[in-house]
Amino acid sequence: MSQEDMLVALQREVESLKNKMSELEKRAGAADDYIAISNLQRTYGYYVDKGQWDDAADLFAENGTLEIAGRGVYKGQDRVRQYMNNFPKYERGVLFNHMQLQPVITINAESGTAKGRWRTFIQIATLDVEARWGEATYENEYVKVDGIWRIAKLHGFITFYSEYDRGWDKGGVKLVRSFKGLEPDAPSTYNYEAWPEAFIPPYHYPNPVTGRRNNGSV
Amino acid sequence: MSQEDMLVALQREVESLKNKMSELEKRAGAADDYIAISNLQRTYGYYVDKGQWDDAADLFAENGTLEIAGRGVYKGQDRVRQYMNNFPKYERGVLFNHMQLQPVITINAESGTAKGRWRTFIQIATLDVEARWGEATYENEYVKVDGIWRIAKLHGFITFYSEYDRGWDKGGVKLVRSFKGLEPDAPSTYNYEAWPEAFIPPYHYPNPVTGRRNNGSV
Amino acid sequence: MSQEDMLVALQREVESLKNKMSELEKRAGAADDYIAISNLQRTYGYYVDKGQWDDAADLFAENGTLEIAGRGVYKGQDRVRQYMNNFPKYERGVLFNHMQLQPVITINAESGTAKGRWRTFIQIATLDVEARWGEATYENEYVKVDGIWRIAKLHGFITFYSEYDRGWDKGGVKLVRSFKGLEPDAPSTYNYEAWPEAFIPPYHYPNPVTGRRNNGSV
């Protein structure tokens, strides 16, 4: 082979390597993103457990939104912060655990956005007053701003709240639909009731094997 | 250095880069696989919660198998679908939550197969009839067909079922061992009883530090 | 372009590819590490469930430490093993489930070390004697020795223990602070009480969005 042929062959190989590399960089980024988004949502949970509301609100993008339990949509980090600070202070005799579980995360690396389905398993109590079990499904969105993943949308569908002493079979606690003096910026996007009513929180993704849409309607 | 020497040196470097690249591609694939398998099993859980049996069955490979609670082995997607559709319809007054938790996933990228140990924490209820807590360990297998991960084997070992009102200390609910008119294709691969009996569901992997096999026998 | 110019250009490209490659190798390693550490801690949980104490102790580094529930620090794998073997044998009538949930993992690939915040949701029972719910937050450390991730530090802060029959609202079970004949090697690093007292287990990481330190003090 002439030197020129060798050079041309090498150029082709280097070109192919560069393409593979940029493909790989995207895939490696997806792993980084997966870890970052997982850590983000789980950290949200740890903050909520302990009433660290300002830290929790800081996890939202500037124009991030929050919608929980059919109480309407709160728009922007300031309103999210206001909503959160409406909850009781964490102190002796307050239990407010919100375990963040079972993530299904779908990342769009090109656009720097992602969606995640999670569930939270809830244990709440006020000493000598009441104790409850609860569960909610989240369908959340995330956005990468300045290289840092943030919550773009947190949407929690509470599926049951039950008194600890009564259990689930005797019905559930009705959802609180509004907080006095804390009007939402927009009405709820879904109309539903928690247990014992039936409701399938919508999925952000199709069946991962068949690709068929499943909108979660009963 | 002569141009020829430079060329030869470059060729060697490109060759080394190509090898590293193909090594890296395998590793990047493992991350993609990890995310896909995690999403797959967790999606199975969300479908089971809500009685979306056809969607759940679609997650199985054509020749996938299902074995739960010592009820025998159901072979092939059709029989899995039949088994699932035997359960009550999701509707008002039916709670059937199966949280998918604590995955230990082992991927064989070369063969496009994987194994996963999971546990499910279960809350079930029929309004005004009964409520239960339950837990099961899964030892599952996955297979990549046409670029999509599917469930090759789902094996759930139920470790306890307890009436909500009685708690665990007063014993458990006996496992249902068969469903009328729904004979399995093969007998159970393990003989065990749930709580209060002792049973260690077998592990698909050795101790990750010592490498010693631990077959989970008491 | 002369052959020499082509060669020089190629050399520059290959150099750039090599740099990107070594950057990518680090990132791909982080994904491998994430999976390995996740599998490690979850396997610890499965072993604890079933009283597989020697297998659990084997997951610790030679100089690994264990500190749980304010009982002091046990230093080195041998003392960890001794601490663990102090617990009741797994057998009929013993339930000791410790689900490993909600990991926030921070990896330092350069140093081969990592930290992880987890929580465990606990169901324990002795048949005909007692049943309890419990929850703990872990702040753990991991170290890669001979290419294998091990537990360098396991620190569990129990946040509540409640009798199943009483629930949370009526207060909690006091933490057991020491085991007879099993003196720790060093006193507890934190002084705290479980529910109904308030305590925020310290975080190993700052707020992931603002970067502000949050030491978890109430």
TrEMBL record, chains A, B, C:
Keywords: Coiled coil. Residues 31-154 form the SnoaL-like domain. It comes from the Bacteria. Residues 7-34 form a coiled coil. The keyword Coiled coil applies. InterPro entries: NTF2-like_dom_sf, SnoaL-like. This is Nuclear transport factor 2 family protein.
